[in-house]
Predict the 3D structure of the following.
Amino acid sequence: MKQRLKVLIKSCHSFFSNLSKSIIWIIYVLRHENLTPYIKQKNQPKKLLILANGPKLNECIKNGIPEIECSDIRVVNDFCRSELFFSVKPTSYVFADPFFFSDEMNERHKQIWNAFSKVNWNMTLFVPYLAFTKMTKQILNPNIKICPYHPIPYEGWKSVRFLLYKKGLSMPRPQNVVIPSIFIGINEGYKQIDLYGVDHSWTKEIRVNNNNQVCLINSHFFDNKTPELKPWHKGIGEPVYKMHEILRDLAWMFDGYYKLREYADNIGCRIINKTPDSFIDAFEREIK
């Protein structure tokens, strides 16, 4: 009797927890977004190569990236600030960080918009739904098509989550830009997605200074000088992370990769991490 009661209580708790998460998701989406799927699924005969900005991308390039000439290439964030951008001519680009949609115009922004103005090949830029209108006004290059995506994670019933994923109405928490990059690739119909430059080894570079500020040495493949140790801010004009906050956010990020792996397996997409010493443990590895 007691065991049955425990099972009943557990089932009720699970039901109402999933129900409340579903209601919260619906309210948010109806208030701030819409239920229009923007990512079009089509037959993708090519592989998708995602080139992220981790320092190990230099090693990957030095060792050679097979099929780079005959695959679709997706890059992220500040990739266009490197000379490699104009040599690989990526077919798609992904933004996720609010930095790229802020009203502030610093040197980093200027370099990005200047590089985009020089794009002379067809490229699709994927941005969160709420940034779509602003980006269409910011980027006037006719060679760049701007496509929105829905980044709001749904944390309720698994069956509903997969349904929303397939419709492109939700995705795993986009704690890192690589997550929407992979997710969009899955929904576009790619059967294999190879990852390069996804080091994700920030925990090796975290420090706490004498002012009790969590700091980071944030390295990228395109750095021309040794990166400095700097306080790790949550965003532009926001406070510095507390240690428990950054570890929580990193945990969400790595959990997001497991959700992607589960979804990819369900869809029939193979994700291969080809980055040496990457901290991502969710995908199969194939290191040259």
Summary: The chain is about 40% helix and 15% strand. The mean pLDDT is 90.
